[in-house]
Amino acid sequence: MMSDFKNVFLEKDTTTLQINPFSQNRIYGLTCQNFENDSLISSIHYEIQMLCIHSYENNFFSYEINRKQVYIDNTAPDLKIEQIADSCAQAIFPVQIKISEDRKIVEITNHNDIKKRWLVIKDKLSKYYEGHIITQILNKVETTFSDKALLSESICKTWFFHLYFRPIYNTYTKNKSLNFVWESPVFGNQIISYDVQQTIEEYYSATDKLFINIKGKSIDKRSVNELLNGYSYPKSEMSGIKTQPLESEMEIQYKLYGEDQSIFSVIGTYKTKITQKKYKTTQIEIYHLPENSSFRPSSQPKQKNISYWINEEEPKKKKSGFWNRLF
Known about the structure:
This protein is α+β, with helices and mostly antiparallel strands. Helix content is 20%, strand content 35%. The protein has helices spanning 80-89, 111-128, 132-146, 148-156, 159-164, 224-228, 235-238; strands spanning 14-16, 26-36, 39-55, 60-67, 71-72, 95-99, 105-108, 171-173, 178-187, 190-200, 209-218, 248-257, 263-273, 279-288. α2 runs antiparallel to α3 and α3 (132-146) crosses α4 (148-156). The longest helix is centred in the middle third of the chain and has 18 residues, at 111-128.
């Protein structure tokens, strides 16, 4: 029976989740599948290696994240455009980021390293590929890579970063939801806004995990045609033409380790109506891949009074469809 499991709220009606650093490398696997109705159209999967450090002196969290080989439809990139995209993305990793306590990415702290790696990769690609198209691609990528804020924004539009770094660490009230507006990259560089309700389940699971559930519906005023044609605003509505706003729903579940409240898994589904008979569904799964089946995180992470990955420089006061292939 459910009452046999440990209660999340104990004697209180509220509970507060907090980020805890894990001092050992963790491997996460990501799979993203795109469906048209019930037919699988494409899939991508890869592994992410992560290290988290909390600087108690400066009260921020730093992550070093490295992406391993990308597989598209279960094979390494083989099309020329996919190979170019994969090569460009290699300049980004490992990426070091600083995040706030509410899980927002503040900045990329090794931007200079990324720019140096990019110059080497750009030189190799320029020598290997010829033509006007490759020049255009490299110029667009360089525009993104050279601007720290633009690169950070682009990274945040990829599924791993978008779902892993969310405001799930919050104060929850029993039988009540937290309400947010989520802007998710359902169509690559095209963002859809959702009104979401975020709740925590009252009981831990049998394996001592916390469940956070998020459900939402689109509040985007654009029509589906405007979305697919790349408009970032409701053109028809602004022209006085009445159209049906796009219909899209999303549902995400986070499972957290009970010991340190770090993420064990994220499973998300986005379903968008294209026509009366056609739906686009994107399913994303992120799982921690421990070294052995008996793994359990430490309930008392070691505190490290250090300042880690110091900024290389002071913060400065539409990516293309090609860019989406980088991740």
